[in-house]
Amino acid sequence: MTRDILQEVLQKIKPSKEERELVERIKGELLGLVREEIERAGLEVKPYFVGSLAKDTYLAGDHDIDLFLAFPLDVPLNELKEEGFKLAEAIGKRLDSYEKAYAEHPYISGKYKGFDVDLVPCYDVNSWREVRTAVDRSILHNRWVLKHLNGRNDEVRLLKRFFKGINVYGSEIYVKGFSGYLTELLIIQSGSFLDVLKSADFMHRKKIIDPEGWLKKERERALKTIEREKEAPLIVLDPVDPRRNVASALSWEKFARFYFKARDFLEKPSIEFFFPKEPQAADYRELIQRKGTHLLVLLFEKPSFIDDVLLPQLEKSARGLWKAVEKAGFNVYDANWGYGEKAFIMLEVEGLERPKIKVHPGPEFYTSRGLNFYKKHDMVWVRGRNLFSEKHQKSYIVDVIIDLLEKNQVSLGRNLRDAIKEADILVDFVPPGLKREAYLFLSKKKWNLK
Fold first, then answer.
1. What is the CATH number of the domain that holds 131?
2. Is 403 known to sit in a ligand binding site?
3. Does the annotation flag 395 for ligand binding?
4. Which of 49, 225, 408, 427 is spaced 20 to 30 Å from 295 by Cα?
5. Whether residue 118 sits in one domain with residue 156
6. Residue 279 covered by a domain
7. Contact 172, 308 (CB under 8 A)
8. Quick one: 172 and 81 in the same domain?
9. Is 294 annotated as a binding residue?
10. Binding positions for ATP (predicted)?
11. Is 338 found in the same domain as 191?
12. Is residue 143 part of a domain?
């Protein structure tokens, strides 16, 4: 049964002969454009295709082309940035469209005949000792995977689709999941898709995967990486660089989802792990009444940032609000964030009121601090040797949040501060466009764990 399911999945995700021919034709056309521009610029630059299209681990319909422009090692870094971007932009002008993008240094992101194309300047490195920018390793990654994959390309495809299906795929800062490269390494290490799933518990307990044997070859550097990453759920020493944990972006939450979903699939395999149905939503208001909790929503204008910038700042703001509201005396169960027409932060809280009076404990009465406390507060009493006072405070959670924001007592994403301070604060109510989101959040179905 399991094999039948995997074959059915492969039929959906494996590129057809026609698609492969299209990919190779487009790659050939791009390579021609790139070589023409390199020659026109008079540069000693080698073009390299990297990523899943170069390694033949891409899924059907997934047409992202990563083309790296590798400069000689003797080129100064500032010259690489300047000349590399000029070259990338000259190539970009020959695409259907392009724009400037940023990583460690600027690169070009464009479109060509329906394909997404990234043109990235880098150094032409042959070992980790020569790596000078973060993107340099990509060439080494490509070589290592091609050397060790040994025809297990479809196993990578199955694992990649499984990760996408359970929503743990992607190393972006707002995803915190398994990268494509990490997916390939897990297959190379374990042997097959099913073997990776069977090793989920072992991965958690052993925690350290060392495909290249750095703990023997470069023990001191590898141990430094392990020590630095000891709080991570998984450490995979990069087979091309002992200083790097390939799984550094992976969060405990995403690893836990993989941990449980792997067990579930092995016990009861189903194609729905790869292609999940949309979770059913119901009335969030009935759910609130049944749970006896409350939903608090901050709704504000969405800045025009890309997800790589916006979503991390939304997460920081949501967690900052959670912490500040709890510190103010409210019980917060969970937080959610995202955007539709507007950006939003949701908090599920136990109650909407806190006591109007807060008892403030003070120092021992006979100390200098005790005298200051006595002078500072109007209502003071002694219990044992210590002074106490009473402080009146706002009790309604909306008033408290407004106060916290006005006094800058909430840690917020730097580009969202002004927008959040102007947010509408809704209690047990969301606009029509957020009804589904509210239900999935309150029911925990959004996290797709069970």
1. 3.30.460.10
2. no
3. no
4. 408
5. no
6. no
7. yes
8. no
9. no
10. 52, 55, 141, 160, 169
11. no
12. no
Environment class of residue 283 by beta-carbon count within 10 Å: exposed (0-12), middle (13-18) or buried (19+)? exposed
- The verdict on whether residue 64 carries a ligand-binding annotation is yes
66 is known to lie in a ligand binding site: yes
Residues 6+ apart with CB under 8 A from 445: 279, 281, 439
Interatomic CA distance for residues 161 and 170, integer angstroms? 11
Q: Is 55 among the annotated ligand-binding positions?
A: yes
At position 128, the amino acid (one-letter code) is W
Q: Where are the alpha helices (DSSP H) in 105-218?
A: 137-148, 153-165, 180-190, 193-198, 200-206, 214-217
Boundary (domain end) residue, out of 210, 239, 273: 273
My answer on whether 262 and 400 are in the same domain is no
Phi, psi of 355 (to 5 degrees): -55, 145
Q: Is 180 among the domain residues?
A: yes
Q: Are residues 345 and 423 in the same domain?
A: yes
DSSP state of 61: T
Look at residue 306 in the predicted model and tell me its pLDDT: 82
Structure tokens at 4: 């039948």
- In single-letter form, the type of residue at position 122 comes to C
Is there a single domain that holds both residue 189 and residue 64? no
Residues 363 and 384: beta-carbon distance below 8 Å: no
At 289 the pLDDT is: 96
Contact residues for 41 (Cβ-Cβ < 8 A; gap 6+): 83, 86, 87, 90
- Identify the pLDDT of residue 202: 84
Q: Are residues 314 and 229 part of one domain?
A: no
pLDDT of residue 398: 96
> Is 174 in contact with 308 (CB distance < 8 Å)?
yes
- CB 199, CB 190: distance < 8 Å: yes
Q: How far is CA 170 from the centre of its chain?
A: 7
pTM score, two decimals? 0.90
Are 247 and 163 within 8 A, CB to CB?
no
Which pLDDT value is given to residue 101?
A: 83
Q: Whole-angstrom Cα distance, residue 209 to residue 186? A: 9
Residue 160, marked binder: yes
Domain limits for position 368: 357-392
Domain boundary among 273, 298, 332: 273
**Residue 293 sits in the same domain as residue 442:** yes
Structurally, the chain folds into a number of domains equal to: 4
168 lies in a domain? yes
Give the bridge partners for 357, in sequence order: 392
